[in-house]
Amino acid sequence: MREFVFALEYEPGTNPVADVLADHPDASVRSLSCHVSADSLWRVDLATGSETALAELEAAYETADYFADCLVKDDCGADCEVQVLDRSSDTLVVYTYWDRTDVCTSVPHVAREHLGDGMLFETYREGRRYRWRIVLASDAPIHAFFDALGEEVGECTGMEMLRLTELDPEHGGNGAAAGAETGGVANGALADSLPTEQREALQAAVDRGYYETPRRIDLSELAEQLDVPRSTLSYRLRRAEATLATTFVSEADSIEQLAAGL
C-alpha cells in the first residue's frame, strides 16, 4: 500500500469554502469520513473556528451552486443534501451528499476512475489550501491520476504533490517520503533525467521558496518571474514531481535508499 499526499490551492472566487477559510485564518476543516461511488459522493466534515467563521462556513456549504468537492466551477445541476449534525461555539459537523450529473466530477471520482476501488481518503483544509491524503494500492498509476486531475482543476486551482510513501510495516509503518517534503532536488542523477524545462522549473521553485512552509512565493508570482504562463508552469512542476516520486518508489531499493538519506 502507498500513501499519496497532495494539495490544491484555490484562487479567490473559485470555491466558497476556501474563500471563507481565507478570511478566517483561525478556522480549518478536516474530514471525519469520505466515501465515493461512480454516481455519488458523501462525507462528514469537522470544522473548527470562531462562531463567525463557522456561521459563514455553514452558509458556504449550503450555497445552491456549491456541492461538496465538485470541481466544476459553475452550477453543475447536481442534487445535493447538506445537514448539520452537530454545532457548538467552536465546532461544526456537516454531512454532505450529492448525486453526479454528466458534468460533475471531484477528486475522489477522478481517483476512482484512474486508481480503482478500495481507497481511503483523508482531507484537511486551511486557508485556500486543500490537502488530500489517499491510501491506495502500491501498483496504482499515480502519474495518470495526477495528470487527469490537473486537466479537471484547470488554471483556477494550483496543485502540488507533497508526499508519496510506501506503507511498509517492517519500517515503522510509514516508510519514507518522496517529493516536495524531502526538501528539493536532492538526487542529481534523477533530476538530470527530467526534460530541461521541467528541471529548470523545479529548480526555480526550490530556489525561490515555493516549497517552503510558509511559501515565500506562490505559483502566479513564480510564473511571472519566469515569464511563462501559470498553467504551463503548473504542468511542468506536476510532471516533474510525478516523475521524481514514481521513480523513487518503482525501484526495488528506492524507499530504503531515500530513508537512509533523510
Helix and strand topology:
Blueprint: E1 2-10, H1 16-23, E2 28-36, E3 40-48, H2 51-62, E4 79-87, E5 91-99, H3 107-115, E6 120-126, E7 129-136, H4 142-153, E8 157-166, E9 177-178, H5 188-192, H6 196-207, H7 219-226, H8 230-250, H9 254-261
Antiparallel strand pairs: 1-7, 1-8, 2-3, 2-6, 3-5, 4-5, 6-7, 8-9
Helix pairs in contact: 1-2, 3-4, 4-8, 6-8, 7-8
Describe this structure in words.
Strands 4-5-3-2-6-7-1-8-9 form a nine-stranded antiparallel β-sheet. It has helices spanning 16-23, 51-62, 107-115, 142-153, 188-192, 196-207, 219-226, 230-250, 254-261; strands spanning 2-10, 28-36, 40-48, 79-87, 91-99, 120-126, 129-136, 157-166, 177-178. Helix 1 packs antiparallel against helix 2, helix 6 (196-207) packs across helix 8 and helix 7 packs across helix 8 (230-250). The chain has 262 residues and is an alpha+beta fold.
